[in-house]
Amino acid sequence: xxxxxxxxxxxxxxxxxxxxxxxxxxxxxxxxxxxxxxxxxxxxxxxxxxxxxxxxxxxxxxxxxxxxxxxxxxxxxxxxxxxxxxxxxxxxxxxxxxxxxxxxxxxxxxxxxxxxxxxxxxxxxxxxxxxxxxxxxxxxxxxxxxxxxxxxxxxxxxxxxxxxxxxxxxxxxxxxxxxxxxxxxxxxxxxxxxxxxxxxxxxxxxxxxxxxxxxxxxxxxxxxxxxxxxxxxxxxxxxxxxxxxxxxxxxxxxxxxxxxxxxxxxxxxxxxxxxxxxxxxxxxxxxxxxxxxxxxxxxxxxxxxxxxxxxxxxxxxxxxxxxxxxxxxxxxxxxxxxxxxxxxxxxxxxxxxxxxxxxxxxxxxxxxxxxxxxxxxxxxxxxxxxxxxxxxxxxxxxxxxxxxxxxxxxxxxxxxxxxxxxxxxxxxx
Length: 429
Ligand code: S3P
Known about the structure:
binds shikimate-3-phosphate; UDP-n-acetylglucosamine1-carboxyvinyl-transferase, Chain; 24 strands; single chain; alpha/beta; globular
């Protein structure tokens, strides 16, 4: 489906940022494995999270969705307990969702049945060996297709391991932590940098025990988890597009309420402030152990910056939109240590560089990141997002500051993480 973006003079107003994708996935998974009823409000109804719901429904979990009086989507899960899942009747197809595939592998490894996990053409290209390897060390029997999907997972008895993560991946870490729920001893995980810790926070909230000391995690087995109600804060990775729109379109100011500000996710705020951005965070509150706040971003003159090292996992999903901001900043921006971008929903080094260049930016790819010279006026053009929702949204925000209109040929991919994205833009104009 084609979307046409016309330049904006000014963007003023408030955007309801959909629920956090990572937290929504984990809520369905842990709610399904807990004893009792879990009610999740402000759940993200994007395609990826709907695929997580379908996966657990196919294993016999009753999951209903309805709209509450505040017009929020509520998900009600009747948990089956840690050992209550049924063998799915057919292959579990998780579509485009890497988080579902990787985290679910950890859960399926500990079941008393075998299962097959598969995904769409984009997900079939992404590495699964990174979860298969540590899970096999725990005793799991998993047959992969040359390190990729589909996976045949034969449920088995699992044991604790001590494991150093070769990449700072929250998905790999989470697969091990979830498998450890079923193991006969704790798993100890060492990280070289902090990645998002929503799994750790939510397991503890459901009565489990995951201890974090500096960069090491002790994930303990449990007999049961216990259902709790959850509120999903707005996804800072989705807010990132509107924060950037406000910074780039002259005279703009956009407010986003109750957005998640877990420190493992707020690298974009730190980097944008270093670039000179005016972003306020107010009314800080907590929901199920997760911090959230009201964000207001206003038009700002930006300068180039260097982004590298331990900062990268704190903003990995925001690099496409940060690259757009950098194309409008004064000076050079260098992004390093981000080779992980090559194995996201698309090769995001290639796709960001190719798309922003097509739109008029001065940007080049490096082995582990990109170099961007700004400011370069954007022209508008026709682009395709390559099955990658964040590339589609980056191109749309670029279209707001381009000279002519921008056409995104396959704009339907935004539904993966941000249903209603294009309407939200129109309401601010
Ligand atoms: C996610 C972890 C990150 C992130 C992805 C969501 C999660 O992936 O890019 O969008 O929910 O755990 P990696 O673990 O591969 O870095």
